[in-house]
Amino acid sequence: MVRHMQFPSNKYLIRHLITTAPRHSYHSATYYERPGAETMDQKGYISCDFVVDIDADHIPTNCRQNHDYAICKACGAFFQGEKPLKCSKCDGTKFDKISWICDECLEVSKKQVFNLIENFLLSDFSIPIEDINLYFSGHRGYHVHLKTKAFLDLDQDARREISDYVTGEGFSFKIWDYKMIQNNMMGFSIDDPGWAGKIAKELYNILVLGEPRIKEVFENPIYGKKLSTSLINIIISNRQYLIKQISDKRKIWQVAGIGEKTWIRIFEILRDRIKADIDVVVSIDLHRLIRLEGTLHGKTGFKVMKIKYDNLKDFDPLKDALSFPDDQDNTLDIEISAPISPKIRIGDTNYGPYNLGEKLKLPLNAALFLLCKEVAQIKPPS
Ligand SMILES: [Zn+2]
Ligand SMILES: [Zn+2]
């Protein structure tokens, strides 16, 4: 990677990009007095955007099992889904990984962007919407840049505090008044600010949807251990009581058979549904490189692009971030070079799945995607 570059204007930057055509392009999220200096010490740190990275890679999705796979580098064994720790055939630990994208994982990361902006940045932090800059990463996620002065000057510890708040990390119920008073479990009120109110609201929303919803949430938590069937049945039989307590804004949530430990597990399951699933490492880094707007992502050929928040709902990365006009006659001849090229939608057309050795003539955007994903090679027409 070539780093420490500085350009007097966009014109010079664009000229450099044209002559070198890098596969990936980044810029620093940090402002320096001398950005071109060779070492960090010499650069003269001024401030840094608060950057939030939301990527389907960090969020568990079911589709991964369908479209990702790994191949053992030693023996060539094929593993569908997440790569295993160890090859079951030869004990090898090195794999070539193919990670794909589909409508489901792109939708999951979009949902998390709405969650972050609506439920945290706008409501809890009161950040003006015009200070929130939103970008499609060109792959399976989004970057949110906060340029509010108060955020620019934050040090690393402060950035970690904010990231922990957004992800519900270091979750302490004590500070939100969770306690047992004379054997009565004290919950939260829907009116409570911040996390306490969010937890009460989320529990209420689940309870009012009835037994199937309660089972779905507590039998299949996003992270960690599920609740036992007997505990879930206790929640179901006390459903009306809890709904009434929460809607009456009463904080006594005493249910026989649910002790302090179980309540904490319930809160953790709720927290994981409420939190914004951000990549914390990115947000606390004061020297982060971020993809350059307008360049292509080297793993997809899609554009890194700024999106107006109002347009996010209708934004379709597999259509709106394509680099070339959707011209079915502008094609490229390629040959599949991986065991499987999973199905991908480009624009309005589905391509694949394809198998090793298949020779194809595909429209440029689709061919480019497969080349960038390294499941195909350019094949001169015979
Ligand atoms: Zn192997
Ligand atoms: Zn997917």
Helices and strands in order, then pairings?
Elements: H1 10-20, E1 26-28, E2 30-32, H2 40-43, E3 45-48, E4 50-55, H3 63-67, E5 69-72, E6 78-80, E7 95-98, H4 103-122, E8 132-136, E9 141-146, H5 149-152, H6 156-167, E10 179-181, E11 184-186, H7 194-208, H8 211-219, H9 229-237, H10 239-247, H11 260-274, H12 280-284, E12 289-291, E13 305-307, H13 317-320, E14 331-336, E15 340-341, E16 344-346, E17 349-351, E18 354-355, E19 359-363, H14 364-372, E20 376-378
Antiparallel strand pairs: 1-12, 2-3, 4-9, 5-6, 5-7, 8-9, 8-13, 10-11, 14-19, 14-20, 15-18, 16-17
Helix pairs in contact: 7-10, 7-11, 8-9
One zinc ion binds next to loops.
EC number: 2.7.7.-
GO molecular function, one term: DNA-directed RNA polymerase activity
Pfam families: DNA_primase_S
Tally of helical runs? 14
Low-confidence stretches: none
The biggest sheet amounts to:
4 strands, antiparallel
How does CATH name the architecture of the largest domain?
A: Alpha-Beta Complex
Secondary structure class reads alpha+beta
Describe, in plain words, how this protein is organized in 3D.
The chain folds into three domains: 10-58 and 103-168 and 284-311, DNA primase, PRIM domain (Alpha-Beta Complex); 174-274, no CATH class; 327-382, Ribosomal Protein L9, domain 1. The longest helix is centred in the first third of the chain and has 20 residues, at 103-122. 34% of the residues lie in helices and 19% in strands. The model has no long low-confidence stretch (mean pLDDT 92). Helix 7 (194-208) packs across helix 10 (239-247), helix 7 crosses helix 11 (260-274) and helix 8 (211-219) runs antiparallel to helix 9. By secondary structure, it is an alpha+beta fold. It binds zinc ion (2 copies). GO terms for molecular function: DNA-directed RNA polymerase activity.
